[in-house]
Amino acid sequence: MQQAHGWLFEQVFGRPPLRLEIQCGTGAIVEVPYAGAIAARQVLEEIVGLKQLTTEPYSPVGWSKCGGCGFKKRCWSMAENSRDVALVYGVDQGLAIGLRQQGIETFDQLLSHFDAASLAELKRPWGKSTQKVGAKADSILRMAKSMATGQEQLIQSPGLPSSINYVMFDLEGLPPHLDELEKIYLWGMQVFGETPGKYRAACAALGESGDRQGWEAFLKEAKAIFAEYEDIPWVHWHHYEKTNLSKYIERFGDRDGIAARVKNNLLDLLPITQGSVALPLPGYSLKIVEKHIGFTRTQTEFGGEWSMAKYIEATESNDDIQRTALLDEIKKYNEEDLAATWAVLVWLKGKQPLSGH
């Protein structure tokens, strides 16, 4: 559509536009390169063709793809009602389209038409070429079975390390495009288990040295945890915590080796969950898994983007009371992230043999 606008501009003013911009569903302003009159006409023809369709064109849903879209609720409901194969965890956009080209539209049809060997040989669109499904076939079929039955499928014992206490560890940060460099504005941690501890939050201060101050505050809190609990596992979800520990060690150093000790004790719960239980869910984000196991939060609004927006609002506020209130909201969200991670850990421990407890 922006190409068409650019073409109209060129017809009226006799020159191409300096640039084209569009506001995405996330609120971001994105520049769209103007490709000229021929490309604009092709876009217009495509739009007219879509307008003339009697049935809605198919586009596979995807957890990341649909996350910030204003139409997610509509499209996702349609996909769930039709038992769309694209909902199966491991079925990417190319595979969903490739399956549909073969008449496989639901996860029930996927199970009835393929076994692991035949699905592994299936070639699906991959960029400008094709690629076999390969070794992912077995996992995809297992996930499809879980979706079709609505039941969990135990793959193997989680094999969690034995400990009477665990530190839940979660970071809140800004990506590079929202700051001069990637910045962690809250380092959250709390011990759960037989001897639980208090919620600890190390926050980046305002000002040029605020990032370093947040890092130093984190090291102080981590040192206190080690002093009380020794080499306790530090449990997190996905690689964000490990990645940023490495970045901050490089950025500000690790004088007493506390960060290195944390890094050495990290336990990523996401791959353990993925490798242990096939879930009747479209993804393995913490927010999805926690809901599946029955964890509930006290906040009506929360999430990573929400947290970033609140933090930016806090940094731009000149009202100390308002700033404190906003930061407290972020801390509460982070604290409940830690509680949710612990809830998933307890749930996984319940799937281990008694000797693993």
Can you tell me about this structure?
Helix 1 (2-13) packs across helix 2, helix 6 (107-113) crosses helix 8 and helix 14 runs antiparallel to helix 15. With 357 residues, the protein is α+β, with helices and mostly antiparallel strands. The chain has helices at 2-13, 37-51, 63-66, 72-82, 93-101, 107-113, 116-121, 137-149, 210-229, 240-252, 258-264, 269-276, 286-292, 304-316, 320-349; strands spanning 20-23, 29-32, 123-126, 129-132, 153-154, 165-174, 183-193, 200-203, 234-236, 266-268, 277-278. The chain starts with a helix and ends in an 8-residue tail after the last helix. The longest helix is centred in the C-terminal third of the chain and has 30 residues, at 320-349. It has 15 helices and 11 strands. Helices cover 49% and strands 14% of the residues. A 5-stranded mixed β-sheet has the order 8-7-6-9-10, with helices on both faces. A hairpin with a 6-residue loop joins strand 7 and strand 8 (200-203).
Please give the structural blueprint.
Layout: H1 2-13, E1 20-23, E2 29-32, H2 37-51, H3 63-66, H4 72-82, H5 93-101, H6 107-113, H7 116-121, E3 123-126, E4 129-132, H8 137-149, E5 153-154, E6 165-174, E7 183-193, E8 200-203, H9 210-229, E9 234-236, H10 240-252, H11 258-264, E10 266-268, H12 269-276, E11 277-278, H13 286-292, H14 304-316, H15 320-349
Parallel strand pairs: 6-9, 9-10
Antiparallel strand pairs: 1-2, 3-4, 5-11, 6-7, 7-8
Helix pairs in contact: 1-2, 6-8, 13-15, 14-15
